[in-house]
Amino acid sequence: MRKLKTLQLIISQIICAAILTGLIFIIAGCGVFAPEPHHRELDPSLLPAEYAQLASATNIFSEVTLPRKWWEIFNSRELNTLIETAFTNNLDLAAALARLRQSREQMIIAGAAGRFTLNGSGSAAVSKEGQTSPFTVDNTWENYGLGLDAAYMLDIWGAVSSDVRAAEFMSYAGAQEVEATALLISGRIAQAWVQYKTAVMEERLISEQIKTSTQALEILKVRQRAALSAAVDVYQQESQVASLRTLLPQIEEQRSDLRIEINNLLGTPASAPLPVAIDEGTLPKPGELTAVGLPADLLANRPDVHSAWLDLQAREWSAAARHADRFPSLTLSGALNFEEPEVGDLLKNWHANLAAGLIGPIIDGGRRVAQLRLAQAQADESFARYTDTVLLALREVEQALARDRMRRAYLAAIENEIAVNEKTLSESTNRYRKGLMEYLNVLTALSAKQNSERRALAALSSMLMNQISLYQALGGQVLEGVMHE
User: Fold this and answer.
1) DSSP label at 267?
2) How far apart are CA 81 and CA 28, in angstroms?
3) How many angstroms separate the first and last alpha carbons of the chain?
4) Which of 41, 148, 230, 385 has its CA 20 to 30 A from that of 245?
């Protein structure tokens, strides 16, 4: 009789397990209806076949491809050192790397929601009971226990896997954000370096102009004592020298501000010495532009564009997960427990259970529907931001190409103006010495020449600054191994 009951119990357990397994497979079969994310693509008409400025920008491009570290195109040890130092110490870049680590841990957390979990437990208890009247009685009970609890949530509708995909794309977007930050920092340092070198060169130029103008002033004073020049000529030349001297404090202030800015980008105190001396040397000569590629290349080369696209993918997968949250969820759980009053007999007696739980929303006040609509609206916002980022990238390249063409023409015009001013100054000086012209004409020609020299330096600096903006706009991966750290 006892064997018959045991057999009946075993058969009933097998039937329950079979029914449970069949139920699992039937419900899991519904996974084919799991919602898929709505992937949107950029309107192809937004990407032109080539840049419009290339039609008019002839003979300024070389066959050289822009290096991954674009600033190396300038062949400056100073600039290379500054940027590499910034990549080590810059706080904005450190913050971006910290956000990347956070996103990668979030990806692990999201994936853990659908993983098998196993927990262990242990217990030990001692109970004692005593009685002293009418005679002493002491009773002691001991109880020891061990347990294992397991659980697994079946991802029937793809909610967990969609959240995992969303977290993965957010992590990839974080890596591109690091690249975008590094690209921005490299450009800011390069531009600050160009401005600082410009200020150094301008200070030298003005000092030379002061020296030249002072020599002319001394000659005028000699001529005045010999009654060959009027006092007003001396006063006019003194005014011109004084005007030049007023420019030096402004340049010194600019150099101080730029040094502080560079230190800030390097992540060092404002008063700290720079890792490399930048007070010597001259600006690099702007050469031909490197090959700029096609507008479609920006989708892969620009880290901010790539990050915006990855963010869009993450938002779309998140919306799919919120859609799946509206369906029932199935969880399997099991437990195995051992309990005995003697430690040595702990594993002799045990009991186990296996359960499946199905839970689904009935009334939630519209929370899940609102969460779905929120996720869809966030995806719409992300798509608009992605499109805007692409258009911004195209605009930045087009503007930089147009400015390069016009600034080359402007610099050539100023160089021609300098040559004309030199001839004018030479002729005016000769005629003044012969008494055929007043000194005011000489002073006017000298001032025009010196002014054009300063404008030529400013034009050279502006052209280099624009080339930096262009190379930034073309994008690229300036860091190594960010995606795989």
Assistant:
1) T
2) 59
3) 67
4) 230
Would 63 be classed as within a structural domain?
yes
Name the 3-class secondary structure at 130: strand
Task: Pull the structure tokens for residue 80.
Answer: 């290379």
Using CA atoms, how far apart are residues 468 and 362, in angstroms rounded to an integer? 59
Give the other-Cβ count within 10 Å of 227's Cβ. Answer: 7
In angstroms, what is the C-alpha Rg of the chain? 39
Q: Residue 19: exposed, middle, or buried by beta-carbon count in 10 A (0-12, 13-18, 19+)?
A: exposed
Range of the domain at 478: 39-114+159-326+367-484
Amino acid at 440: L
The predicted-structure confidence for 117-170, as pLDDT tens digits, reads as follows 888 888 888 777 766 656 555 677 778 788 888 888 878 888 888 888 999 999
Give me the CATH number covering residue 308: 1.20.1600.10
Q: Residue 150 falls within a domain, yes or no? A: no
Number of domains observed in the structure of the chain? 1
pTM as predicted: 0.82
In a domain, 26, yes or no: no
- What span, in angstroms and rounded, lies between the C-alpha atoms of 60 and 31? 58
Q: Are 150 and 344 in contact (CB under 8 A)?
A: no
Q: Which residues pair with 120 in a beta bridge?
A: 148
Which DSSP state fits 228? S
Max Cα–Cα distance, the chain, nearest Å = 145
pLDDT at res. 64:
59
Confidence band for 30, pLDDT divided at 50, 70 and 90: very low
The percent of residues above 90 in pLDDT, for the chain, comes to 43
CA geometry: angle at 387 spanning 382 and 391, to 5°?
A: 145
Residue 19 placed within a domain = no
Helices (H) and strands (E) in the chain, counts: 10, 6
